[in-house]
Amino acid sequence: MTGGWHEGDPAGRRRWVSLRQPLELESGDLLPDVRIAYETWGLPNVSKSNAVLVLHALTGDSHAAGPGEPGWWDGLIGPGKALDTNHYFVVVPNVLGGCQGSTGPASIAADGKAWGSRFPALTVRDQVAAEAHFADALGIPSWAAVLGGSMGGMRAVEWAVTHPSRVRTLLLLACPAAASAEQIAWAAPQLAAIRADPAWQDGDYYSSPPGPVAGLGIARRIAHVTYRSEPELAARFGRTPQGDGRFAVESYLDHQAAKLVRRFDAGSYVVLTQAMNSHDVGRGRGGIAAALSRVQARTVVAGIDSDRLYPLSQQIELAQGIPGAGDVRVVNSPYGHDAFLIETGQVSAYVKELLG
Ligand SMILES: CC(=O)SCCNC(=O)CCNC(=O)[C@H](O)C(C)(C)COP(=O)(O)OP(=O)(O)OC[C@H]1O[C@@H](n2cnc3c(N)ncnc32)[C@H](O)[C@@H]1OP(=O)(O)O
Ligand SMILES: N[C@@H](CCO)C(=O)O
């Protein structure tokens, strides 16, 4: 297996592992000079048997919790919390193809220029392959738990199917066994919006900042509606005018778009969205049921009752296919898909159930 070397970040919490060998992708291509950024909380025991892997969603990153800036799962990670850092060594890598420290299209290739359009198409399996080498480099033979929501859940289930003996418990949140036609359809106008922005330049815009921020902003507006629920938008915004010619809900989406383009790269958005479209645990494995039957981890599957993007039927399929998973757990929330980030109290209860 590939090892790695560690590079610290003296100014902050983030560290990096650089893979010693090029990563072999599902396509057969080789991706050289892969590095994975990560953060950790708590301390490993001698055998590292207390290591827990937390996998972030599309625009998340390695900063899942403080100290310092708030993290995206602060409610779950820390001393005395569901992922109790007095007991567990919590590891959160930035996904391969991302833009918050790990190798992605904005990274500099061997010729000194950004990868841009030369960056290869990735699958969720490629991302998990990189994470497996990353775990090897950290000296973690198996995870006490692998947890993920949304795109993080896609990687978590791939981990448990590809490396059954390395995943001892598994929490899958608001994710599918395979991307559906509906999910690929929602992604299509997002990808089209980015590619239609003249600043996209076929993905080779990195020498002309800020790049296709208009297209990325439109993509986020489309996506954000799918991340929330119709009743929430109705109750929260209704037909209220913003007072500047926009409806309040339009202003809200404009704000979400402006926030994302300040922190996210359009090239990564395209690569990661296509990777999610590729997601199918059953591909080449005799179908979804056959693939899920490989899982050895004690598993909890949870979905959100108001999730219109990854509906409960998809988590029911996962729960029915994974041996011993039992019934799907339901997060009750008005917030739609984003509830896996917002309803940390309910998610904590499922993490505690998982970890016993
Ligand atoms: C903490 C971090 O760094 S997270 C980084 C990684 N991020 C992720 O992994 C996920 C990305 N984030 C998200 O998806 C969301 O921010 C969530 C799900 C985490 C949080 O959702 P919520 O707390 O429900 O936030 P919500 O959707 O209500 O948005 C609130 C924002 O909308 C703004 N807003 C509300 N109404 C309006 C309006 N009419 N016009 C303009 N803006 C509005 C609020 O002022 C607030 O702005 P702020 O975020 O700049 O403070
Ligand atoms: N709000 C989440 C939704 C995708 O799961 C994100 O931006 O990553």
Automatic annotation (TrEMBL):
One of its GO terms (cellular component) is cytoplasm. GO terms for biological process: homoserine metabolic process; methionine biosynthetic process. Belongs to the AB hydrolase superfamily. MetX family. Residues 50-342 form the AB hydrolase-1 domain. Pfam families: Abhydrolase_1 (PF00561). It is found in: Cytoplasm. It catalyses: L-homoserine + acetyl-CoA = O-acetyl-L-homoserine + CoA. The keyword Phosphoprotein does not apply. It is an enzyme of class 2 (transferase). Pathway: Amino-acid biosynthesis; L-methionine biosynthesis via de novo pathway; O-acetyl-L-homoserine from L-homoserine: step 1/1. The active site is at residues 150, 307, 337. Keywords: Acyltransferase, Amino-acid biosynthesis, Cytoplasm, Methionine biosynthesis, Transferase. The lineage of its organism: Bacteria, Bacillati, Actinomycetota, Actinomycetes, Pseudonocardiales. Homodimer. This is Homoserine O-acetyltransferase. Transfers an acetyl group from acetyl-CoA to L-homoserine, forming acetyl-L-homoserine. Its EC number is 2.3.1.31. SUPFAM superfamilies: alpha/beta-Hydrolases. It comes from Kibdelosporangium phytohabitans. PANTHER family: HOMOSERINE O-ACETYLTRANSFERASE (PTHR32268:SF11). Substrate binds at residues 220, 338. One of its GO terms (molecular function) is homoserine O-acetyltransferase activity.
